[in-house]
User: What shape does this take?
Amino acid sequence: MKRVWMLFLIAGCSTVDPKPETPTEYTFKAPEGFPATAYRFENTPITQAGFELGRSLFYDGKLSRDGSISCADCHQQEAAFSHFDHDVSHGIDDRLGTRNAPALFNLAWHSDFFWDGGVHDLDLQPPSAIMNANEMDESLDRILEKLRKDSKYPAMFRAAYGTEEVTTARFLKSLSQFMLLMISSNSKYDRYIRKEAGVTFTADEQEGLRVFNLKCATCHPAPLFTDLSFRNNGLKPTPNPDLGRALITLRDEDRLRFKVPSLRNITESPPYMHDGRFSSLERVLEHYNSGVQATENLDPLLSQNGRRGIVLSDAEKRALIAFMKTLKDDTFLSDKRFSHP
Amino acid sequence: MKLQYLLFACFLFAGSGCDLFESDGFNVDDKGTLKVVFDNVVGDKDLTLNSGSYVNAAGETFNVTTLKYFISNIKLTTEEGKVVVYPQESSYFLLDESDPTSLTLTLTDVPAGNYKSLTYMIGVDSLRNTMDVSKRTGNLDIAGKAKGMYWSWNSGYIFFKMEGASPQAKPAADGTTNYRYHIGQYGGGFGTPPVKTINNLKNSTLTFGTDMLKVRKNKTPQVEVKMDVLKVFTGQYTMKLAENPVIMVNPLGANVSANYIQAYALVSMKNNVP
Assistant: This one.
């Protein structure tokens, strides 16, 4: 009896964990009304220390060959973590990539990354940009070596994972922890839908929402404002077109298909399309109105009743832009948790 | 009469160590070690990286500068047909011609028994190819041993990598005449909706005929396997470096994998290695 009591005491002691509690702002909480997440959270518990390590790495040039390029160079917070005003990625040695750096937010809901969906796990997304010769041009083993020798990182790894050991998984999961908390769900639209006090839509915004639901929401459904699918939206072909999704799947039916981007914060992340060819939302809407080309695998939604594209009057275009402005999430864009540490 | 008695005794003491038949007897709980030695060859010659000059089925002269492949998912089948799976966690071997020690696979804690065949996969199965990064350690660490055997842009392991040069190879933009075969792709199943892609995962089975592979507590049988580089270029499909010197994520990868699975063959099996 006495022995049982002792055991109970010991077991009781072990539950009193000296580890600091992670404040709620560092725990993942899906916004109300969002669908099920795709990320495997069971393998990656988020902690404040893990998040802060990821944040430090995200802003660190050590992830590139010569120290000049960090993740944040092409993923800037004020541009919803896209590369403001850059059509294609501008990487190391002033080299240019072939595609537009996508905005980063609500990544826990994505199961396929990049315009072509070549990567299927957020943890494995950073190596693609790191190892790309036009982006960061660095190898993972060299990065881990740099971090081991660094003056601040071993202590940060210890804080996050209990020991100073720098492993591939710890490195990548820290970046994931940082990116997973980048949730955008507090735009004017969100507050309007939640019927928050004092939040109203103007007549233009209401009209924009109506037109949006009628003509855009199939591919860009709320609350993510993307259906996460891959589609060909009929862009004018370039001499050597980027085949997009087909480069991954090798299927003819995936030629010229690209991942549907989210429209959240879209006013902040120009230019648009996988190659950044459109500098403004006006030009994007005009493409859908009059520019859709009959290229192979053109999405059937863009070719209905014998007409290509989506008919949009000037008034509808104006209303749609007014509506898209309501998807700007200032809370997210200025959230200090995500800024340069 | 005496033999029957002995057999009976064996029955009684199976599990506690009956070793009365000194050559073939084994305890069902015994564990042993098995070595599988891979030898990369070119026809009847041993492969020499860089300096060796060879001719493929299309009549093209070539050398080999890099040859690496994954061997995984090793299974043994007993004479009764029971399949013994080598622990999957420990069964990812990365063989590199430039590192001779990597060509010998030492399988430990193999249940003692008489085995009629051994099966292995060339490549990394789809489950491990989509498994959490924390489970990708050792030979599968993309920042470690698997460096160069992983495509970051389509997040998949390269199963089989062979590179070299050939004067007949179609020149690249910079005029060099190198060839590169990087074969991977595990059948996909990713995306919304899920997409099936090429599946280059292949299994090879070595059968030992009437001689069983005998794993025992104190004896380490050794299996020697050869991989004939010439067969990578021919067999089901004759590959021409003059036409396709670079085959990576490409439908032609299926032709290369169909060829190379037939390039692996049993050379010898020795039971009595102390």
